[in-house]
Structures are given as structure tokens and as C-alpha cells.
Amino acid sequence: MRQVFYYWLFAWIVVIAPIAQKAHSASLAQQPFPELSRLVKEGFLPNYHVVVVDSEGQLTTQAESYEGGVVSVDAIKTTSTVALLSLSKPITNLLALRLVTLGYLALDEPVSKYLPKFEDPRMQSTDQASSDALRAISIRDLLIHTAGFAQNAELLGWGEVANTYAEQAIFGFDCLNHDAQETLAQITDRLAGLPLASEPGKKFAYSVATDVLGRVLEVAAGESFDVLLRKHISIPLAMPGLTARITGKRLADIAQLYQPLIKTYPVPGAYQRYEPFTGIDGNFSGDDLEEVCISPGSGLFASMNDMVVFIEFLRNDLVLKNGEPFLSESLGEQVFEHALDASFGNRPLRRSLAYAGKDGISIASLAIRPKNGLGLALENEHDFYYWSGFSGSGIWIDRSNNTAGVLLTQLYPSDQFLIPKLVGKVRASLK
Fold this sequence. Notes:
Order of helices and strands: HHEEEHHHHHHHEEEHHEEEEEH
Shape: globular
Largest sheet: 7 strands, antiparallel
Number of helices: 12
């Protein structure tokens, strides 16, 4: 116990404390993102916190929250516990790639090697030809969302299979709130008995594949997802607030999540266009650590301090503080490479991810924005790398100027896709 205490003390001194110190000497202009301030003042965003890391490792931070409205809004502090939602996916994918590097599993192995109930995947169809045996789902399919799963309709999935997930509580709000009294293994087993939304390897579809991946990692490494996350991500990267479970000690620090408020009558002027989110009540019941659902794909929590460490890690090509590469050379390169082959077409994400119709995706769950704006083919030059969730939060890596950033907001679902604008503002400020 004493060793654990000293480790986190060291992490605070070496990694986290400098965040506050560096912010005063950043090279970007003060308040470089007026667009974010406008969105708060006009009631479109309840709050935000954005941090940019420049090429020298210096930080620029800007944060704001709506003041004086009917809906009370708390600021997102550097230590606030924030629901990452879709930002969980790059973290879980990198955990998987680390375990591949360590030899626990391989990208092209079938999922059924670790989860036998997925040995015979089937699609929902009355057509006999469509119900024929499908090819095996691979670990790679889970990483790049080509496994054939859907996303729970509660989390903006659509279609018949997505609705089935919601009806049967497959990685939905109950899981994020720790209300579902099932383990990751139990929910994954139930998912295996449901039909797929598409054939494995035929289509990119944002989905619960990352949740299944989390269960595969448990079986492959012989430890719980919580332990693996702590051992291979949280401790070596010094992200002490990163967790898949919220217990009593963390409740006081949880940032409130909001949802859009739809008025059915005209309201003049600016007003708060949101209210407290009702899908997740915040009354987490995670003290019984073994008997609540966790979601590796949508249910991780972290602070701004943690996420700044994470983007700095990505900006530095996934090299640990001790100089050790986090991944093998081959996997490290694939983190920033488009992972879908030509059979998926030039715009593989366009019917699955909003605002990403021309983008590609890597095995690390980083979307890739192409420079030419015409759609990403394997030979196209990359503009920047990012991942953005339906809460408006996002991360980005810009190799053109060796900068990175993280934006945390707490509006779900949000129609604000702000990452490209922030990237553009940073580039303009550094010219």
C-alpha cells in the first residue's frame, strides 16, 4: 500500500502538477477559442474545458461555464471526473494493442478463440442465403468496427439490432450508470446470442465492438478489465483518475452531464438550451466491484489532467516516460494509418459517424482527416488525427505542427463538432 501511495505521489509531482505551471507560459494567445465562449454565452454549451499542448510541451488552457441561468452549471475542473463516453474507445484500443505487443493475443485471431459463444455468428434475416454461416469475427474487426455489431439505440445507435440492444440492456445507460447487476462476461455472453447487424468484415459500423474487445482482453490476459486498465494504461502513463468504475470516493468529483432542452414555443434571445441529463442519474452503485456492468467502449471516466497526459503520450509517438516504446514498431505505425482496405470504398465512415464521411480510421480508434477533403484512400496524405464523441468532447493530434489537444464538454447528445475548428485556430495562432 505504501508503494502505491508513493507511486501516485510521484505521478502527481512529475506529470500532473506541471499542467498548472506550464499553462502560464504557453505560446498560443490567451483565450484562443472565442467560438467556444460564444456557444456558452448563447446557451448552446453548458461548459467546456480545452487544453492544447504545443511542440515544446507547453500548455494553453481555456475553460468556461454558463453563469446565472435557471439551470445551475458547474465548471469542468482539471480534477473533475468526466464521463468519457466514446472517448473510451481509443483508450481501450490502445490497451488491446499493448497486450498484442506483449503476446497475449494477435490481431487476426478469431474472437471465438477467447469467447467460444461467438463461434457461429448469424445475421437477423428470414432469407436463407443471408442466414448462411458467416466468416469468423477477428480481433482486428473489434478494433476497427467491422465485426458486424450495432450500437445500443440509447447511445445513438439505429436500426432493428440497435433497438434490440436497448430492449435487452446490452451496454446501454444501465451499464454506464452501474445499475445493471451483470458482469462484462455475462452481458457479452448475452450479446453472443443476438444476431449481427451486418456481415463481419464487410462494413464499418460504430458499435459495441469495443465492449466485446474488453471482455476478450480479460480472457486473454486472465485478469479483469479494471486491473488491466490500471496495470497497462493508468500506472505506466500516470493517469490516476482513469477508471471503469465509479465508487463512493469519486462521486463528489463527477461532472454533471446535460441533455438538449427542446422548447415547444418561441423563446426570444439567448437561453440555456439544455437541462440535466436523465439517462444517467449519477447515483452510481459501483462499490460492489464484482457485480456491476462496465463498458470498455463507452463507460470510462477520467479527469482533464488524465486526458492531457494521454494526448501528450500520443503526440510523443506512444513512448513512455522511461523511453520505452509502448507498442511494437509495426503496431506503433498502424496507430496513425488507415486500417480499412479498398473494398470499403473511399468514404467508409460516412453512414456511421456524423461529420466523418470523408475520414478514415486506425486500429487505435483514431479518425483520420484527409488533406484533400475528397475522401481517404490509402495513399492520401493525412491532415490530422482525432476522435470525437456524441457529447462534443474530443481529442486531436496534429503532426504538421506537433501539437495536440483535448476538449471536454458535458452535453449529450451534442450537435457541435468542434475539433476541426479548434485545429484551425491553433494553426492560425502559431503562424
